[in-house]
Amino acid sequence: MRKYIKGMFLGLVLLFLYLPIFILAVYSFTDATNIGAIRGFSLHNYVTLFTTPELLGMIGGTILLALGAAFLATLLGTMGAIGAFYSKKKTTKVISTMNQVPVVNADVVTGFSLCILLVVVLGVSKDTFVPLVVGHVILCAPFVYLSVMPKIRQMDPSIYEAALDLGATPFVALIQIVIPQILPGIISGFALAVTLSLDDYFVATYTKPATFDTISTYVVNATKGAQTTIKTALWALSTVIFLIVLVLVAVMNLRANKNGSERVDA
Amino acid sequence: MRKFSFSRKSLGVPYALFLFVFVIAPLLVLFYYAFTDGQGQFTIANLTGFFTNPNTLGTLCYSFALAIVTTAVCLLLAYPIAYILAFSNIKSKSVILMLFVMPMWINFSLRITALKEVLTVLEGNLAMHPFLNAVIGMTYDFLPFMILPIYTTISRLDKALREAAMDLGANEFETFLKITLPLSVPGIISGVSMVFLPAMTNYVVLDMLYNSTYIMGSLIGSYFAAYNWHGGSMIALILLGIICLFTLLTGGSEEENTRGGALL
């Protein structure tokens, strides 16, 4: 009986989380323009989604930005974590504290303050994409740092020293000994960076060129507009993204089970 | 000139510089703008203006109320979920946990769009219940961020402690109250900090639900739209103050962060 109640509670909350997405997914396959209207099956939303240059450009731009920013953030954050770990205690503390600022700060404040410094004070044009890319790197790099740091702490320092004793230069030892050991942290940091960039709205609004949109800024503007073709094409986009995430999660889960570990946390 | 020799320490220099230039410097500039006017003259008008204007003060109070209610609702939903999952021995536990966390990876604007369509069918005019819809929207958006840290904390608790309490005669409720709950406080704190601040600042959730009520984030948005950098900076600074205070209160639990820490 108690087990039943517990299960029902979990089920209800899951329903709350997923029902809207499912309903939208069902309606994305009809030619209805509003939820609740009953209309026939149609793929026109998917046709619109994959043939409208504006939508494709926006999606491509978002992905490109996420990959680019995540790459830079991973490079900077990883180097930062390695550097901080081997610095004096005080230096480590300073870097870690600065690293924590964008993490606890509200994204609105991060985006707004960056816009003031770069655009208002230094006069950098938003059209150069510099403020946007810098903004997204700021958003992501601290999380790369946080996911790499524990891996460096867990590392056995004697292997690195052994490599040096055997004649490797510090640089070679870093590439061949340190990097492979912290690779899981780097990879999960990169994945995290990509998802953070994809999900961002605030930093992008305050730093993006007027003619460029990410999925988030585009969707937010589209909900305020009255263009129904675009509105329903976004239902299709939501469904596609949901399916992609679902497949990724399923693959990750299967691989984790194969490796015999219950949890896959990074 | 000494030849540059590679050392692991020097790897941190670019990142440290980057953080200083793009994280610390913007906050200093924010501070400068908050206390100057359009002519660059020092002024505290922005500060006094905020605390004497009933509208902005109202927004501050409304933000707090919304954040407190949203956080409470998230906590009341998330804690039992985390508790049930952590102590259940069903085999598909990790799959169910994954289901609760997965929404984090779906673009929030698309999820809120979905919620908006459903709420519109249920309520008709969304503008009729602004506070309720704001709480629903934010809970919908932030709930996974509350579940994950609490689950992580509870699932790492030493089983022996609970067994000892039971052996010593405590019933399940007493064990929960005296053992599990106090020990899961760190998870609760990091969950609360993941939800509370976004609930004060994430004004897009409100905008998308056709909500015309203002929270602190919306003020920055409207100053930004009006190119009023000085007014906007003051709001950002006040928010920063609240964030600092909040971080101090919660002990700034470093590394326990889960904005996405959530890489399951």
Automatic annotation (TrEMBL), chain A:
The keyword Transcription regulation does not apply. Residues 59-252 form the ABC transmembrane type-1 domain. Its main location: membrane. Keywords: Cell membrane, Membrane, Transmembrane, Transmembrane helix, Transport. It is a multi-pass membrane protein. It is found in: Cell membrane. The chain crosses the membrane at residues 7-29, 55-82, 103-123, 129-148, 169-194, 233-254. InterPro entries: Bact_Polyamine_Transport, MetI-like, MetI-like_sf. Belongs to the binding-protein-dependent transport system permease family. CysTW subfamily. This is ABC transporter permease subunit. It comes from Jingyaoa shaoxingensis.
TrEMBL record, chain B:
It is found in: Cell membrane. Coiled coil: none annotated. Pfam families: BPD_transp_1 (PF00528). It is a multi-pass membrane protein. Keywords: Cell membrane, Membrane, Transmembrane, Transmembrane helix, Transport. Residues 60-250 form the ABC transmembrane type-1 domain. The chain crosses the membrane at residues 12-35, 55-83, 95-114, 134-154, 234-253. It comes from the Bacteria. Belongs to the binding-protein-dependent transport system permease family. CysTW subfamily. This is ABC transporter permease. It comes from Jingyaoa shaoxingensis. The lineage of its organism: Bacteria, Bacillati, Bacillota, Clostridia, Lachnospirales.
